Amino acid sequence: DIQMTQSPSSLSASVGDRVTITCRASQSITTYLNWYHQRPGSAPKLLIYAASSLHTGVPSRFSGSGSGTDFTLTISSLKPEDSATYYCQQSYSGRTFGQGTKVEVK
Amino acid sequence: EVQIVETGGGMIQPAGSLRLSCAVSGFIVSGNYMSWVRQAPGKGLEWVSGIYSGGNVHYSDSVKGRFTISRDNSKNTVYLQMTSLRAEDTGVYYCASAKGAGDGSDIWGQGTLVTVSS
Lengths: 106, 118
Hints:
The structure holds two protein chains of two kinds. Chain A is mostly beta strands. Chain A is 0% helix and 51% strand. The N and C termini of chain A lie far apart (37 Å). In chain B, the strands form two sheets. In chain B, strands 2, 4, 5, 6, 9, 10 and 11 form a seven-stranded mixed β-sheet that branches. Chain B has a four-stranded antiparallel β-sheet with strand order 1-3-8-7, with no helix packed on it. Chain B has strands at 3-7, 10-12, 18-25, 33-39, 45-51, 57-59, 67-72, 77-82, 91-98, 107-108, 112-116. Chain B is 0% helix and 51% strand. The termini of chain B are far apart. Chains A and B meet through strand 4, strand 5, strand 9 and strand 10 of A and strand 5 and strand 9 of B.
């Protein structure tokens, strides 16, 4: 099975900061990598698919990059509504989620 | 309107069985990759099972042999039959849809809570 490892597990940043979350796969998944965020009490929402494609309606401050085993989600200018837990997910072989990164906006 | 509604959750004793339903409107389940994802209280997301448009199914190691995913095209509904339930199966179960097997899941239901406890 493919394992996904995210870092950091949590972070706290200020409005307007640039934030980066990394995700590493235990084997190459080419670009079969998706990013979601989830607010408490709500279902996850798709942000990025195929490593770098922005899902419809997602603000352009979100971006994704990477291929193979190493991937990055970047929020270019943090907003208060970005407080959430962020998950990466591989869809190369079955599905596996990373353990999540909790983002707090100060 | 595109919508997913999960039902069937509840409290069940260990070793018991439960069937979850995922009713879809606005698109055809047989044309998409449908999956079940669960979240234990206070924990992260865990993919449980998926069914491809062609009918192939797959499971996480933690539920293989105990859970069965299926779909009824006439009802546009996906099911998750859960047997031999354990306390660690407790959580919110989400149904999600992706356009293709390798795509991100862009449509999610609101989830249904399963509690396994004596």
